[in-house]
Amino acid sequence: MTDATETITTFVQPVALTITLVYLYGVLAKSQQNKFRLELSLGLLFGVGVIASMMAPINVGEGFIIDLRNLLIASAIAFLGPLAGVIALITGVATRINIGGAGAIYGVAGMLVAGSMGYIWRHLFLNQGHRNLISLVMLGVMMSAHILVGLTIAEPQRSTFIFGLGPYLFALNVVGSVLLGVLFFREQALNIKIDELRTAATTDPLTSLMNRRSVISAVEEMQTDSKTVVSKVMLYFDLDNFKDVNDNYGHLAGDVVLKVISERIAACLRPNDLFSRLGGDEFVIVLPDVGRAIAEEIAERCRLAVCSSPIQIGDDSIDVTISMGATYSGSNQKFQNLLSTADDALYEAKREGRNRVALHESFLHEEAGIAA
């Protein structure tokens, strides 16, 4: 009964470790958007997995032990990227050297070979779009090249390692690669789907700009995260006589016009400015940490970018202009309050003849240094 329990434990522990690593990978991939930080975190995660595997090895006698180190290192490089794999590899090498013993040099060499095979597989298969069962089996076969390190061991241990442990290690690598690969691909597909849903919920489908919901959330987050009051300017604009464009050239042409002016204006903004299509031909830009001079400069640059040259759609050349209202806030005002005062300024720009920028009286407070 004891032998049976030990046998079951021998196989359950590696599987449990593998599933745990993939589950934690999924958690990190969903929560961490920065690619470098994600790969760094995953490298540390798999490094811990390598240590855990080496601290609870399967002792098969003759001074040989079996664990998941080579499988985890090769898989980290193959599925997660070079940075994650190198971190896992360095962790495994350092741990094996620290353990010591006559087999340390062979253990280190085996990890280097397995890691190299994972890197080669990534370029030959993963980067070429091969994500099927055959490619996963090939990963297990390729990483099993670390078994050949046993050829450098003196007899009689060489025969024990190659012929006694070799088949078991080969099977472990192939089965482990397939299991890890299937779980990884499933998690990656799920993360892609989540990203698509997140994008659909926060992005305008026509212009790829922020939608109303996301820009409101961004402004609120800007105010919540800041320990001090963040001054900001809101630019609210729409296209002059846009209905005539749709009536004369069709709605498809109108969509093209909206996309082109979005691109022209986006090129005029700073990296931290927020640009959103609220709906129809209505757009809003939020400029953080600016005063009247910079706000007027950006607003005028945007206006000129739109009207400076006509938009060519087939044989038609369409002249487009925008009217823009600008409002200033030196306090953490609600988005809707800013939009309301910017709308008042936009109405003034329309009344004065269109194709112009009108400033709300809130800029008088900015000039006087008073929080509006």
Identify the notable features of this structure and list them briefly.
372 residues; alpha+beta; five-stranded mixed sheet; two-stranded antiparallel ribbon
Short summary:
This protein has helices at 2-31, 35-55, 69-80, 82-99, 104-124, 133-143, 157-202, 212-225, 242-249, 251-266, 292-307, 335-351, 362-368; strands at 58-61, 64-66, 232-239, 274-279, 282-288, 311-313, 316-318, 322-329, 357-359. The protein is an alpha+beta fold.
Outline the low-pLDDT stretches. Answer: 1-11
Q: Taking strands numbered 1, 2, ... along the chain, how are they ordered across the largest sheet? A: 4-5-3-8-9
Proportion in helices: 55-70%
Q: Supply Rg.
A: 31 Å
Listing every helix as H and every strand as E from the N terminus to the C terminus, the arrangement reads HHEEHHHHHHEHHEEHEEEHEH
| Global mean pLDDT | 86
Strand content: 5-15%
What shape does the CA trace take? elongated
Main beta sheet, described? 5 strands, mixed
Q: Structural class, from secondary structure content? A: alpha+beta
CA distance, first residue to last residue: 79 Å
Tally of helical runs? 13
Total E-strand runs: 9
